[in-house]
Amino acid sequence: MIVSRWSPLLVASLLLAGCGGDDAPPPADTSPAEGAPVGLLGALDAARGAAGAASQRAGQPRSADDMRNRMPETVAGLPRVDLSVASGGMEGFSMTTVQARYEGGERQRIEISMVDMGQVPGMLEAATPWLNFQFDRTTSTGFERTVRFEGFPGFESEERSGGQIRSEMTLIVDGLMVQVEGRNVELDVLRGVAGRLDLGGLRR
User: Fold this and answer.
1) pTM to 2 decimal places
2) Burial class of residue 154 in the structure, from the number of CB atoms within 10 Å of its CB (0-12 exposed, 13-18 middle, 19+ buried)
């Protein structure tokens, strides 16, 4: 699995920790990865506190089958090699997560993840602080910036180092986090993958 500072599993564990109240122990490590943009340093730690004040909205998670059926068998010429679905929750907090992995030659890999917080989607937005401002950073090895894709707010990045390419696109669709990550795959390819997911059909 490609580990990203915006990994859905990291976000989910962060938010679940935030549901435990003032007495809940903090997560072992919620610091962003080294090299995170200056404006986002400490964002995940801050998000845990913001989650407690996020607005709540009634409803159940989206259908796991609907989310799973949106994962193509192939993307960008890469076959799907793994598909996982998880649903559950605790203390009135419910969540559905679907992840698919695609691999091919030349060490290429794409992962698509969808995480839906059915009853408290506002917490998901609280874990993505870039929703509240515009950000654009370019370095000698790549870039990262906030974007709008098909009308949805998002964050995208690409880094080239040692002959390797690491790319990422994260979008928020009505409380649903959609993340597409690539290794040795350019960001333009990930945009094409995201476009195949029928994001409009994921609206509540």
Assistant:
1) 0.71
2) buried
